[in-house]
Amino acid sequence: MAMLFARSRNLVSSLRQNLGLSAILIKRNHSSPRPVFTNYQLSSRVFLDPSTSFRHESTAVETQPDLVQQSDHEDDAQELDFPGGKVGYTSEMKFIPESSSRRIPCYRVLNEHGKIISDRDFIPVSEKLAVRMYEQMATLQVMDHIFYEAQRQGRISFYLTSVGEEAINIASAAALSPEDVVLPQYREPGVLLWRGFTLEEFANQCFGNKADYGKGRQMPIHYGSNQHNYFTVSSPIATQLPQAAGVGYALKMEKKNACAVTFIGDGGTSEGDFHAGLNFAAVMEAPVVFICRNNGWAISTHISEQFRSDGIVVKGQAYGIRSIRVDGNDALAVYSAVRSAREMAVTEQRPVLIEAMTYRVGHHSTSDDSTKYREADEIQYWKMSRNPVNRFKKWVEDNGWWSEEDESKLRSSTRKQLLQAIQAAEKWEKQPLTELFNDVYDVKTKNLEEQEVGLKALVEKQPQDYPTGFHI
User: Fold this and answer.
1) For residues 197 and 191, what is the distance between their CA atoms, to the nearest angstrom?
2) Ramachandran region, residue 470 (left: φ > 0; alpha: ψ -120 to 50; beta: rest)
3) Of 33, 402, 428, 448, which is most buried by a Cβ count within 10 Å?
4) Does residue 425 contact residue 209 with C-beta atoms inside 8 Å?
């Protein structure tokens, strides 16, 4: 080991002397804290710029022009042939900069006051569609509030809200075709709501009763529906991305007029499955729309600690995927971007990546207290000043399509329906213990039979350790 270290040190020293590379070594200052921004500073940026982190840029690369755009050397006209393709060459040693000097802009249609931005470029929506989109966004808000309170009352074991991300849920769903196959993460119940999943079906899943399609074997909020082409939510992060690439490729082979659509959070892009999924879809030219909700926090991990790149959108280009960054709090922008991406995916048989910039207003889940790692003022700012539901509501109201009377009726009716759905779900019997061992194999294996017998014996011996309504 000592010999290897000495050789490495000598190699670095030689490079410094012969090639003048001392400036290329990146300096790190781990003692500097992450900058804290005021509400005014937050309003002027969507997220902290990765360049504001405590890692310094390479000064050697900063002074060099972008090689991708540069073509000022006579050797560039000539090409070298490699198995990976023909490329030009240069006699100068230059490194591609780690990132562009300017961040990728964010596509938006509505400003913070719900007004159309001048020189806008978006797909118009009818009054009927706009009203339904707002109704579903408001319904999702009420549903999150009621189920969250039900969990706090101990009536269900777990819940996870979509507060702050309602526009991504509903606007993306509105832009898709019912035939498109959705592979969600866990913060997209609005997509299922849009497709017709009833409040009663949501309640049955959260309570894990006999009417639950998953037979009570999944955690609450792990919804799924064959009828609505909505894959069942799976807890492991990013596993749905390679699966989406496979689903998209299958749709392509079957010549279906549909695509696969998959969702992921910014934290999930740190998983290997994210990269495998994008690369697989790109190479196989599978019709897949990847939608990343960049909401600033992967539970308690801030995006400045997740990646060094300019967010997610630039990762698409690295894999040869057409990409766009959109304001995820702007329902019209999300609708236009997703609908256009869906059209490209289906007609051109290609994957598309969408980075939706937003903010997770709620806690990560009912198992989390986000005030432990972020300021209450920050949460309140995004909840009040950057609220996607309020922004879209202002636009719908300005068009004369919505009123306060409509608002009162909708929220009152939705609340009543949800409370009734919860009461009905509680009255259903729980799934019998035997369902825990079914649907794994066509014929139960010997070890599964042994486990079932052992568990039954344990329940009979210690019935007090199991919830009311639980039966063999």
Assistant:
1) 9
2) beta
3) 402
4) yes
Tens digits of per-residue pLDDT, 367-394?
A: 999 999 999 999 999 999 999 999 999 9
> 375-405 b/e with 16+ CB inside 10 Å = b?
eeebbebbeeebbbbbbbbbbbbeeeebeee
Is the CB of residue 262 less than 8 Å from the CB of residue 238?
no
Task: Outline where DSSP puts E strands in 310-349.
Answer: 322-327
Per-residue pLDDT reduced to its tens digit, 284-337: 999 999 999 999 999 999 999 999 999 999 999 999 999 999 999 999 999 999
- Pick the catalytic residue: 172, 228, 364, 378? 364
Task: Tell me which residue of 466, 422, 438 sits closest to 201, measured CA to CA.
Answer: 422
Residue 364 catalytic? yes
Closest to 293 (Cα-Cα) out of 372, 184, 376: 184
Annotated catalytic residue, options 235, 367, 385, 413:
235
Cβ atoms of 220 and 156 closer than 8 Å:
yes
- Of residues 129, 132, 58, the one with CA closest to residue 94: 58
Q: Which of 162, 323, 365, 370 is catalytic?
A: 365
Backbone angles phi, psi at 433, to 5 degrees: -60, -30
Residue whose C-alpha is closest to residue 232's, from 288, 171, 165, 182: 182
- Whether 149 sits among the annotated catalytic residues: the reply is yes
- Whether pTM > 0.90 for this model: the answer is no
- DSSP letter, residue 328: T
Segment 130-140, tens digit of pLDDT:
999 999 999 99
List all residues 6 or more positions away from 44 whose beta carbon is below 8 Å from its beta carbon.
Answer: none
Q: Do residues 169 and 162 make contact, with C-beta atoms less than 8 angstroms apart?
A: yes
| Confidence band, pLDDT 50/70/90 cuts, at residue 96 | confident
Q: Is 365 an active-site residue?
A: yes
Catalytic residue among 62, 79, 149, 305: 149
Q: Are strands 79-82 and 85-88 parallel, antiparallel or unpaired?
A: antiparallel
CA end-to-end distance (rounded Å), the chain:
60
| Alpha-carbon distance values, 168 to 173, 221, 327, 365, 380 (Å) | 8, 17, 9, 18, 20
E strands of 70-203, at which residues? 79-82, 85-88, 181-183
- Work out the angle between the directed axes of helices 388-398 and 166-175 (0-180°, nearest 10): 60
Residue-by-residue DSSP string for 385-438 = TS-HHHHHHHHHHHTTS--HHHHHHHHHHHHHHHHHHHHHHHHSPBPPGGGGTS
Of 417, 415, 467, 468, give the one whose Cα is nearest residue 149. 415
